[in-house]
Amino acid sequence: MSRTFVGMPVFPPPTHPAFPEAARDAVHNHTLRSNLRHATHTIRAKRARAVAELSDWDRLREAGRLIKDHTLRHLDRYLVQLEESVTAAGGTVHWAVDAAEANRIVAELVKATGESEVVKVKSMATQEIGLNEALLEEGIRAYETDLAELIVQLGNDRPSHILVPAIHRNRGEIRDIFRTEMGAWGRPAPDGLTDTPAELAEAARLHLREKFLRAKVGISGANFMVAETGTLVVVESEGNGRMCLTLPETLISVVGIEKTVPTWQDLEVFLQTLPRSSTAERMNPYTSMWTGTTDEDGPRAFHLVLLDNGRTDALADQVGRQALRCIRCSACLNVCPVYERAGGHAYGSVYPGPIGAILSPQLRGTASEIDASLPYASSLCGACYEVCPVAIDIPEVLVHLRERVVEGGVAVRQGNKVVLKPAKGHAAERAAMRAARWAFSHPGALRTGQRLASRTRRLHPRTLPGPGRAWSATRDLPAAPAEPFRDWWQRTRGGKDGAK
Amino acid sequence: MRVALFLTCVNDTLYPDTGRAVVKLLTRLGVEVDFPMAQTCCGQAHYNTGYRHEAEPLARHFSDVFGEYEAIVTPSGSCGAMIRELYPRMGERARAEGRGDTLAAVLAPVVPKTYELTEFLVDVLGVTDVGACYPHKVTYHPTCHGLRGLGLGDRPRRLLQAVEGLELVELPGAEECCGFGGTFALKNADVSAAMGADKVRNAESTGAEVLCAADNSCLMHIGGTMTRLAVGMRPVHIAEILASTEEETAV
Amino acid sequence: MSSRERILGRVRRALADVPPDDTPYEQVVRRDYLREHGERTVEQTVELLAENLADYRAVVHRCTEAELPSLVARLLADRKAGSVLVPSGLEAGWLAQADVSRVADRTESTPDDLDRVDSVVTACAVAIAETGTIVLDGGPDQGRRRISLVPDHHICVVRVPQQVVASVPQALERLAPARPLTWISGPSATSDIELDRVEGVHGPRTLEVLLVN
Question: Whole-angstrom Cα distance, residue A143 to residue A128?
Answer without folding.
Answer: 16
